[in-house]
């Protein structure tokens, strides 16, 4: 059974491209298709479009000058470029600190670097998803080349105090470089690297209503970066390959729109997220809030439905047109529960039935009302076929429902 309805609550996986973004991109495919590196004006026009876009992205994250922004093809490329780019060099500085809950595009680079001889410290999170920052400070030493901490977690929405962390890390070892994966923060909260000591910061267009396949990396002007992709002189010699002009222009437009809609994130999106969250928690007795961090991005909630199976919940929601996810899109396809929820120590009984709902400025109150009306019966149906009938009964009893 498929449903013509589409209630898209998976905006941390990817977002709808804003029509106004598509509109500004269109001329750069078949009209202004010149190579921005060309001498003639027809190509140079595109160099100007890139320059204007770079200025917008510079302002979007509060960089000081355009040279600090390089365009990449994804958030993953930004992370790989930043991490590899500052490490190549002094092998006596072979220590890295990160968190257990980073995105796979960061974590899997460190898994690889461990094989190459680096020592990596993984800081833990508490049961609310908040980072145990002291573990980072305790681990910094004279060998620490890099600390990388995400700005906001993609599964729980928890915001980590990156500005405070970088300040403290630099006070212990000023030579340690700091990378911030800000992919889930950009477009949801205001990012401003100005007056911080953050060395590098990555964003990705498709998480804030630009297309998939475009990202940016901020590299503080004092930081020496070895390029990951070698070839032509594009991006100041730090990222070879003819620039993806339409996508760069599109991401810049999306950044402008994100700034324009920041108040909508803070008000409407947050209101609808809270309505969905409190509604599900109050209507469903075996629902528990996984993402209870005190500071969160406005659009994300993660709810565990105890004693039932996440994949079944998702399939049943799909039948009525609701899209959400268990874990991150990048880890689905494997049956392993989310590494983030595992790191939080979410009880086994809720780990497999945890669902992330992530909203956007396109989410409407009607959609949230529909979800609140139609998800509880699905959970009730799955509760009835759960192999954990005694446990569910006990939970009901504990909550005073029977
Ligand atoms: C989506 C995501 C990425 C990867 O970005 P891509 O552009 O899809 O490569 C990195 N970090 C976080 C936190 C993300 O949510």
Structure description:
The protein is of the alpha/beta class and 402 residues long. The protein folds into two domains: 146 residues, Aspartate Aminotransferase, domain 1 (Alpha-Beta Complex), CATH 3.90.1150; 242 residues, 3-Layer(aba) Sandwich (Aspartate Aminotransferase, domain 2), CATH 3.40.640. The chain has 14 helices and twelve strands. The strands form three sheets. A seven-stranded mixed sheet has the order 2-8-7-6-5-3-4, sandwiched between helices. Helix 1 runs antiparallel to helix 8 and helix 9 packs parallel to helix 13. The radius of gyration is 22 Å and the shape is globular. 46% of the residues are buried. The model has no long low-confidence stretch (mean pLDDT 95). Bound molecules: pyridoxal-5'-phosphate.
Level-1 CATH class name of the largest domain: Alpha Beta
Kindly name the structural category. Answer: alpha/beta
**What is the beta-strand fraction?**
5-15%
| Number of helical stretches of at least 4 residues | 14
Question: What is the number of beta strands?
Answer: 12
For the structure shown, list the relevant keywords.
Aspartate Aminotransferase, domain 2; three-stranded antiparallel beta sheet; binds pyridoxal-5'-phosphate; seven-stranded mixed beta sheet; 402 residues; alpha/beta; Aspartate Aminotransferase, domain 1; 12 strands
């Amino acid at each position: 059974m498929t449903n013509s309805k589409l209630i898209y609550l998976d905006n941390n996986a990817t977002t709808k491209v804003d029509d106004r973004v598509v509109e500004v991109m269109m001329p750069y495919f078949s009209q202004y298709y010149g190579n921005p590196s060309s001498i003639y004006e027809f190509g140079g026009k595109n160099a100007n479009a890139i320059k204007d876009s770079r200025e917008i992205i510079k302002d979007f994250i509060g960089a000081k000058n355009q040279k600090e922004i390089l365009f990449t093809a994804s958030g993953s490329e930004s992370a790989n470029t930043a991490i590899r780019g500052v490490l190549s060099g002094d092998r006596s500085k072979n220590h890295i600190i990160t968190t257990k809950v980073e995105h796979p595009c960061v974590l899997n680079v460190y898994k690889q670097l461990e094989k190459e001889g680096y020592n990596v410290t993984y800081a833990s999170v508490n049961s609310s998803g908040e980072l145990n920052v002291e573990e980072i400070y305790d681990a910094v030493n004279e060998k620490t080349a890099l600390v990388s901490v995400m700005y906001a977690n993609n599964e729980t929405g928890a915001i980590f105090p990156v500005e405070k962390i970088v300040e403290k890390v630099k006070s212990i070892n000023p030579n340690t470089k700091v990378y911030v994966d800000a992919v889930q923060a950009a477009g949801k909260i205001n990012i401003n690297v100005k007056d911080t000591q953050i060395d590098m910061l990555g964003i990705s267009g498709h998480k804030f209503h630009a297309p998939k396949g475009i990202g940016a990396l901020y590299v503080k002007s004092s930081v020496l970066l070895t390029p990951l992709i070698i070839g032509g002189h594009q991006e100041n010699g730090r990222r070879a390959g003819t620039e993806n002009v339409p996508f760069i222009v599109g991401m810049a437009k999306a950044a402008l729109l994100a700034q324009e809609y920041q108040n909508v994130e803070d008000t409407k999106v947050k209101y609808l997220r809270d309505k969905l969250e409190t509604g599900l928690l109050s209507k469903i007795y075996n629902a528990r809030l996984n993402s209870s961090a005190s500071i969160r991005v406005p659009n994300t909630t993660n709810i565990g439905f105890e004693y039932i199976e996440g994949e079944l919940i998702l399939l049943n929601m799909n039948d009525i047109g609701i899209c959400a996810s268990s874990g991150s899109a990048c880890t689905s396809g494997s049956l392993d529960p989310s590494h983030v929820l595992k790191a939080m120590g979410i009880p086994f009984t809720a780990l497999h039935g945890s669902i992330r709902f992530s909203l956007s400025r396109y989410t409407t109150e009607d959609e949230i009302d529909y979800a609140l009306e139609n998800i509880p019966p699905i959970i009730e149906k799955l509760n009835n076929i759960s192999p954990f009938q005694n446990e569910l009964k006990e939970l009901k009893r504990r909550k005073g429902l029977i």
